[in-house]
Amino acid sequence: MIRVAVIGGGVAGITAAKELASKKFQVTLFEAKSTLGGKTCTFQSAIPLDLGPNWIHGDDPKHNPIVNLISSEVQFHDFNSDKETLFDRNGETIDDPHLKGVMWEVLDAAIKYSYKNTATIDSSLSLMDFAKTKYTDQVILDCVTTFGNYPGIDVHDQSLKYLFLEDCCPGKTLFVKGAYNKLINVLTASLPQSVKIITNTKVESITSNETSALISFNNVSEHFDAVVCALPLGSLKSNLIHISPALPKHITQFFSQIGIGNLEKLYITFSSKFWQSELYQFPDSFASSLSAVDVIAISDDPPILLVYYSGNLAKKLQHDLGPIRTPDWDPNLAENDWHIVLRYFHKHFEAIGYLPNSHKIESIVATRWLCDPLAGYGAYPNFPTTLKDIGPLEDLKKGLPGQRLWFAGDYTGSLIAMSTVTGAYLGGQNAAARIRDYFLPIDIANS
Ligand SMILES: Cc1cc2nc3c(=O)[nH]c(=O)nc-3n(C[C@H](O)[C@H](O)[C@H](O)COP(=O)(O)OP(=O)(O)OC[C@H]3O[C@@H](n4cnc5c(N)ncnc54)[C@H](O)[C@@H]3O)c2cc1C
């Protein structure tokens, strides 16, 4: 049988393993952490708290396969934009409905412009440059900064040329209520029994040629006929796995230009509820906070706020929280560290009704993706103004058959679902289909 090593047990790796095993390849799936799922993981607290994805970016099942995979397992929640409270930089709420929707208006126009003119747009232009061609009012430009938390990059650094890569599948964007890791349960339950799963095992190197591949872990080496590298793009960018022969220069150049979003989440449980809205958005200029901040009321009982933050704020806060224990970090923040979180967010909480003497903090759950090498030091790929050419994305999708090496991840699926769970799923399918085609002339079961 043809032996394939799949390295990385996130959505992309599990999907590639499943598709290959169901076509009679003999698959070994290596995962460095103690459990499968990668960034799609849920922390069990009083209620389940998703540490990675929470959203379905486009609920049309014809385009987004994730919808059918989990719709029977979770409820979807459609946030009512009427219940959204937007703040200006001075902490005043913005009630003008036009201003509330202006970020989406600018984004839609900019994405359309990017699709149409990508070939001629200067790569140094940003989303904010585009916004400034439409508006001069500072309040509006501040509203535009709230987009930063979507790609995990400041809108001044977000490429206009490649903004179309931030487009989503058709349909509504919905919040998954329950737990996104149910998707991992569904995917792992569908893995054929023949798949050998090896957890707690970090693969250190891949050495391959046109006929075989050798992978090394824990001072052991094992031969395979093919390898699927399902590590995050950030891991490849940071050379966290040794690949020999070295990847082509245009691909390593692409790695140096691509961005890795530093989006982080906090779940703060309070002794009592003090908020009125479901969703609050703060521009990056609010209280010198360095990044846009989104606050979502995910539960009234127990009272829990979910905070999204990114950019330089994420870098500073993560630095202040100190190093993490890998591979499996504990997201439950020690009480001694709660003041660090409050240092950056008390003004946001106060703006929505928080009174320190009345609303005690009971727990803080904090993601640490930016510090986690196994996550590729960040959340997911984004497209900064430093990016000159996305041609290598297509080459990564094709893989390197001459090196018996294929790639799977949220960057090898479809251009419309980049950097999402859907993209990772499609990326896993893409790698499996290409390996199948490569080995097709060989009778797989009898080889
Ligand atoms: C905070 C946050 C919010 C997000 N929100 C959304 C959202 O709302 N909607 C959405 O669709 N997407 C969202 N995403 C993105 C989504 O989670 C990812 O795009 C997707 O999970 C990536 O899957 P993957 O399989 O490509 O990579 P990963 O999930 O990163 O899996 C890679 C796996 O490889 C393992 N690994 C790494 N190095 C090694 C090694 N050397 N040897 C063996 N194993 C190794 C890792 O431990 C990991 O399990 C979010 C991500 C984050 C972090």
From TrEMBL:
Positions of the Amine oxidase domain: 11-435
- List the InterPro entries hit by this protein, alphabetically: Amino_oxidase, FAD/NAD-bd_sf, Flavin_monoamine_oxidase
Q: Name one Pfam family in it.
A: Amino_oxidase
A biological process term (GO) from this entry = chromatin remodeling
Gene3D superfamilies linked: 3.90.660.10, FAD/NAD(P)-binding domain
Question: Which GO MF terms are attached to this record?
Answer: chromatin binding; flavin adenine dinucleotide binding; oxidoreductase activity
Concerning PANTHER family, the annotation shows: CONTAINING AMINE OXIDASE, PUTATIVE (AFU_ORTHOLOGUE AFUA_3G12150)-RELATED, FLAVIN MONOAMINE OXIDASE
What's the protein here called? Amine oxidase domain-containing protein
Q: Give the species this sequence originates from.
A: Tortispora caseinolytica NRRL Y-17796
